[in-house]
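User: Predict structure, ligand zinc ion.
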Amino acid sequence: MTRLLPTSTAGSLPKPSWLAEPEVLWSPWKLEGEALIAGKQDALRVSLQEQQHAGIDIVSDGEQSRQHFVTTFIEHLNGVDFEKRETVKIRDRYEASVPSVVGPVSRQKPVFVEDAKFLRSQTDQPIKWALPGPMTMVDTLFDGHYKSREKLAWEFAKILNEEAKELEAAGVDIIQFDEPAFNVFFDEVNEWGIATLERAIEGLKCETAIHICYGYGIKANTDWKNTLGSEWRQYEEAFPKLQQSNIDIVSLECHNSHVPMELIELIRGKKVMVGAIDVANNTIETPEEVAETLRKALQFVDADKLYPCTNCGMAPLSREVARGKLQALSAGAAIVRKELEAQR
Ligand SMILES: [Zn+2]
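Assistant: Predicted complex:
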């Protein structure tokens, strides 16, 4: 990116009410067959346009074609039975009904590549595409086959690498891996989490990002956050090893969370997508609030490596609130951009 402080979002944006019920996760589709395919493309167009109207620099599909950021990918794999659902505890936090691994996993065919090509055909702006990370995939299903989280994560890493290479060929500029599980299972992160992530990005020439957050603004997450105390130091566990890794960009949560800003120092040298928009409430940030978060982050990340972003996906929010927050992000970034340019 040549522009200073290029804005982007963590990934998901609300879906139109004619496509899926708004403000809920895992919302079932309201259309079927051909109508669903066309509906997803129309929703992607609308989502892209809303990002563009808000002045977002690095745009995405708003995850309009997936029901959920992890399970939709998993459901497209061999070895996973999505009708055989089991209830598991996700992120050590809340129960959810998820698909089961019943045999060796492999990718039948590209999962998101057609969607990415479609997004590419709609804009010349840089595009970012989100995929789930290996550890978060393992943590979002029931494994009745490998019976080893690490073994399954290595298998997923290989599959993700195949998908990522095709997304790159489709013209995606940044491929992001979502790893909220990195904020929970610290021993696994350092034993095999980062290693499997590096396997997933092996050989890629486009930029790569990892998104680590405290989750969507749903009750289970908010309740969990209330138990974390006044200082959230979870990033301290994964950051030193991530700093040494081949990942280009780290996307993290800052605004309204209790993450001490100085933890960003631990990933010095990486580009940082700084979450300056809270996705867990309906209050639209003022541009000045966004600017204040970015200014604080600038103490620990060089200006040319700072990417203003949202804390997490905005799928569970109303479209109106999400639009307001996107505009606030742009306006806040513009304030700080101006300040930086005046100093030059
Ligand atoms: Zn997130």
